[in-house]
Design a protein that fits this description.
Arc Repressor Mutant, subunit A, globular, 167 residues, 84% helix, mainly alpha, 7 helices, Rna Polymerase Sigma Factor, Chain: A
Length: 167
């Protein structure tokens, strides 16, 4: 395993994960960058990607919690803010799983033909309606609908195929 490959593969996932905990994308990037420095310092200690991945998520999670605790202390001093950690712990697990799922979906979307992938991203990730996509891409509304349907069907087929391979 090379650190550059690990960085490239996990940086965006970890930023998404941290952002969902913090609700602050800039702070999420900072925390992930600091966590990757910690990983770099211990990189030789990892024998496989699974343990490395576990370390990265736990480090990011703990650093996010530490940041939030620090912010909570500041808030408590200012206005008596009460922080509920049980809900946060459940949210962390949910967002970690969602981050991994989105990474898998993104990987599959990248395999689609460019036009289908563009329409899919605009519609589902950027929440742009069909008419606006047609105008933006300079194609008919029906073309957008067709490309969206093809993309969804291809993704559905690929995920069902991979699910069957797992069993």
């Amino acid at each position: 395993m090379e650190f550059e490959i690990i960085h490239k593969k996990y940086f965006r996932r970890l930023v998404y994960f941290a952002d969902k905990i913090l609700n602050d994308s800039e702070q999420a990037k900072d925390i992930v960058s600091e966590s990757l420095i910690k990983l770099w310092q211990r990189f030789e200690n990892f024998d496989d990607e699974k343990s490395l991945k576990r370390f990265m998520y736990l480090t990011v999670r703990n650093d996010c919690f530490n940041y939030l605790k620090h912010e909570k202390r500041l808030c408590d001093k200012q206005n008596g803010f009460n922080y509920v950690s049980d809900k946060l712990e459940m949210d962390v697990t949910y967002h970690m799983m969602k981050s991994e799922l989105l990474a898998e979906i993104t990987k599959e979307i990248d395999q689609l033909p460019q036009a289908e992938a563009s329409v899919f991203r605009l519609f589902y990730f950027e929440d742009i309606d069909t008419n606006a996509i047609a105008v933006k891409l300079g194609v008919s509304v029906q073309t957008v609908r067709n490309q969206k349907a093809k993309a969804v069907n291809t993704l559905r087929y690929n995920f069902l195929k991979s699910k069957q391979q797992c069993h």
